[in-house]
């Protein structure tokens, strides 16, 4: 049997709240400018994307409110836990994001933080905020699909046993 190919993608943190609170329009993968102690702390799997957002300032994308705790064995060279971090993207992508994010109701949020081939990457998304009734509707749809899948699997089990 052939070995499964490793994608080289090790997940550090996900922002599940963003997928619940926003309609995801478009996603982008970009690199991060980090300090050495930040990378070591991320290798330990410690980060939080919950309150994070992306702001574009003078054709540069900056990631705000991402919590990367201080490295445990770090000394005076340790980083600040909630500093803003520069995103590495192509200029055309930044310009496109900037023009679309200026539309009403649109924002840029981080979805996931992961290692890809030894480098830290962040998946960001252009998103539009959901209303309360939209959130309830998506929860209802998820519950309905879960119930239908359960009914189908139960029917298959009954068919096999008969």
**Alpha-beta classification:** alpha+beta
Give the strand tally: 7
Q: Which bin fits the share of residues in helices?
A: 25-40%
Main beta-sheet annotation: 7 strands, antiparallel
Strand percentage = 25-35%
Tell me what the structure shows.
- The protein has 162 residues and is of the alpha+beta class.
- The protein has helices at residues 16-21, 36-43, 91-101, 132-161, and strands at residues 9-14, 22-32, 53-57, 60-64, 85-88, 106-116, 119-129.
- The chain folds into 2 domains: 9-130, Small Protein B, Chain: A (Beta Barrel), CATH 2.40.280; 131-162.
- A 7-stranded antiparallel beta sheet has the order 1-6-7-2-5-4-3.
- The longest helix is centred in the last third of the chain and has 30 residues, at 132-161.
- The protein contains 4 helices and 7 strands.
- It is globular, with a radius of gyration of 20 Å.
Summarize the structure.
The chain has 162 residues and is of the alpha+beta class. It has four helices and seven strands, in the order βαβαβββαββα.
Which labels suit this protein?
162 residues, alpha+beta, Small Protein B, Chain: A, 33% strand, globular
Explain the layout of strands and helices:
Elements: E1 9-14, H1 16-21, E2 22-32, H2 36-43, E3 53-57, E4 60-64, E5 85-88, H3 91-101, E6 106-116, E7 119-129, H4 132-161
């Amino acid at each position: 049997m052939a070995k499964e190919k490793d994608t080289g993608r090790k997940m550090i943190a996900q922002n599940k709240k963003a997928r619940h609170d926003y309609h995801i329009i478009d996603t982008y993968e970009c690199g991060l400018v980090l300090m050495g102690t930040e990378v070591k702390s991320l290798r330990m799997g410690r980060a939080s994307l919950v309150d994070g957002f992306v702001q574009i300032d003078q054709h540069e994308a900056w990631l705000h409110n991402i919590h990367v705790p201080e490295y445990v064995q770090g000394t005076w060279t340790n980083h600040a836990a909630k500093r803003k971090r520069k995103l590495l993207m192509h200029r055309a992508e930044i310009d496109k994001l900037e023009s679309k994010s200026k539309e009403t109701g649109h924002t840029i949020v981080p979805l996931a933080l992961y290692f890809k081939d030894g480098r830290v990457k962040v998946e960001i998304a252009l998103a539009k905020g959901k209303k309360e009734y939209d959130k309830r509707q998506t929860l209802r749809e998820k519950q309905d699909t879960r119930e239908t899948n359960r009914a189908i699997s139960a029917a298959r089990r009954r068919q096999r046993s008969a």
